[in-house]
Design brief:
The protein has 385 residues and is α/β, with parallel strands linked by helices. It contains eleven helices and 14 strands.
Length: 385
């Protein structure tokens, strides 16, 4: 298998961040759509994308794209795809997910059933069998309809890429690791700058920042479904991707990354998660309320996921909480602040209009990424470096 197309889904509103990540890995962008980026590569790209991409939800191997407005048409077009190039005679295959937007075929369960039947018919003819043992490697399929066009892919990842493997304990309203990484990458923060999350919960923002600072690939300590696809991807490509990732790690750096939370048990969980990620030595966690937020240095960053007040009883406390955030930020001379929240009165109670405001979907919840930009630090001369 030489040139292949890979599809990387991501959070709506963060396609540009993922696109840059893919280009930085050296791959050609084929198409950018709402919530996904398609790019071209090879077997090596499939492995490296899974190991290195911080903001993708998964990596899908595109088998084909078909237009269908009836189930008969879908059956015939899926049956015409060369499934034998991907699935061996003993492969276990099923349609793990089907979605449909603005299409005549809209029932996920019916789409899943028809696609599976079409694949079985194709492979029965190729392998000359009437029954498949499905005792071999797993080949989950994902199909997404958009305006009657279906993109049909094999899921190379398995568990979503936000499952880095370090977060064994979570807070009440955790932010996904992929989303946290994307929000950090949207800022000009670098590893030599201060970063504070005053609502750190289980530590996702500080941990993702520390992994970025130490150049730790997010997928270096987990497994992927396609590792067992030896008929498609040689094992050597996985070994090479992991070796490359390990060679790039530099955790002997000095950082100032801090995470605060008012809940002491949650702070303990954050420390455990950071230890599991191998970055506990790069982060200072502390039980502390937002009212105690302060720092003696200039040009720092607040990046946080404060309470949204999705429950009615919590919403009443939000004006006071966001006012406190605004007061603390006002006292941090020259700092920048980035908040993701669905709270519609954020700017009112912060007491300042955001310089930038980006709409991002956190799952099905519409949120906004409020960006309050501080001044750039002066450039250091050679004597100061």
């Amino acid at each position: 298998m030489s040139r292949i197309e890979l599809v990387a889904p991501c959070h709506f509103g963060l396609e540009a961040v993922l696109k840059k990540e893919i280009m930085d890995l050296g791959y050609e962008i084929v198409q950018v759509e709402d919530g996904r980026v398609t790019f071209a590569g090879d077997e090596e790209a499939l492995c490296r994308a899974n190991v290195f991409l911080r903001t993708a939800e998964r990596v899908l191997l595109k088998v084909g794209k078909v237009k269908a407005v009836t189930f008969d048409e879908l059956f015939e077009k899926v049956k015409a795809l060369p499934w034998e190039n991907y699935i061996p005679a003993d492969g276990k295959f099923w349609v793990a997910k089907a979605s449909s937007v603005k299409s005549k075929l809209f029932s996920p369960s019916d789409i899943q059933s028809i696609v599976k039947k079409a694949m079985v018919e194709r492979l029965k003819g190729v392998y000359h069998v009437e029954w498949f043992p499905e005792t071999g490697a797993e080949y989950p399929i994902r199909i997404s309809f958009m305006k009657d066009e279906a993109t049909i892919c094999l899921d190379t990842t398995g568990l979503s890429l936000h499952k880095r493997g370090y977060r064994t304990m979570v807070s009440k309203a955790p932010i996904k690791e992929t989303l946290a990484a994307a929000l950090i990458l949207l800022t000009p923060w670098k590893k030599d700058r201060i970063l504070v999350d005053p609502f750190c919960g289980s530590g996702t923002f500080p941990i993702e920042a520390a992994m970025i600072a130490a150049n730790i690939a997010p997928g270096v300590n987990r497994s992927f479904t396609a590792e067992k696809w030896t008929n498609i991807v040689g094992r050597k490509y996985w070994y090479q991707a992991i070796d490359e990732a390990n060679d790039l790690i530099d955790d002997n750096i000095v950082t100032d990354i801090q995470g605060y939370d008012i809940d002491g048990d949650i702070i303990k969980a954050a420390r455990q998660n950071a230890q599991a990620a191998g970055v506990d030595h790069l982060i200072h966690f502390q039980q502390r309320s937002v009212s105690e937020l302060s720092h003696p240095k200039k040009y720092g960053f607040i990046i946080s996921n404060p309470p949204y007040g999705e429950r009615l009883e919590e919403k009443a406390a939000l004006p006071e909480l966001y006012t406190e955030i605004g007061n603390r930020f006002q006292n941090l001379d020259s700092w920048s602040m980035y908040l993701i929240t669905s709270y519609e009165d954020t700017e009112k109670y912060i007491g300042k209009k955001a310089d930038k405001n980006r709409k991002i979907y956190n799952g099905m919840l519409k949120t906004y990424y409020y960006q309050f930009l501080g001044p750039k630090p002066p450039k250091m001369n050679r004597q100061e470096r």
